Amino acid sequence: MRVATAAAGALAIAAVVMGILAFTAGDEPAAAPPQTAAPAAGVPASRGLEVWLAQGCGSCHTLAAANAHGVIGPDLASSAKGVPASYIKESIVAPDKTAAAGYTTGMMPGDYAARIAPDDLDRLVAFIKASARR
Known about the structure:
It is a single chain. By secondary structure, this protein is an all-alpha fold. It has a domain at 44-132: Cytochrome c-like domain (Cytochrome Bc1 Complex, Chain D, domain 2, Orthogonal Bundle). Helix content is 46%, strand content 3%. The protein has 6 helices and 2 strands, in the order ααββαααα. The chain has helices spanning 2-23, 48-55, 76-79, 85-93, 112-115, 118-132, and strands at 62-63, 68-69. It has a two-stranded antiparallel ribbon. 25% of the residues are buried.
């Protein structure tokens, strides 16, 4: 019984240490995943979910298509519905320019233009736009 308790404690400590290391592992942005092909005209939203997940968008935003239930930022299925892709992109790369109704500026990080590769940003925007139509 003591061995099982000690093992569980060691696993819990290891999980905490790994979590701390993940958040303090340097200020360098992660390398973008290798691209298998250039995006076609109209950029398909299929890889946008991968970008959404990699950037942690669901930790703040709700979006049913991504099974995300964040409560800090707006529900993107409703706030992005009917808006042009240019508005969605601007909301990501210059989030303090305009806030969605009921939200204030200053909550979303302003460095996504530097963090997200242009092709990936297009994929993310296409994914959000396509998801907002559902």
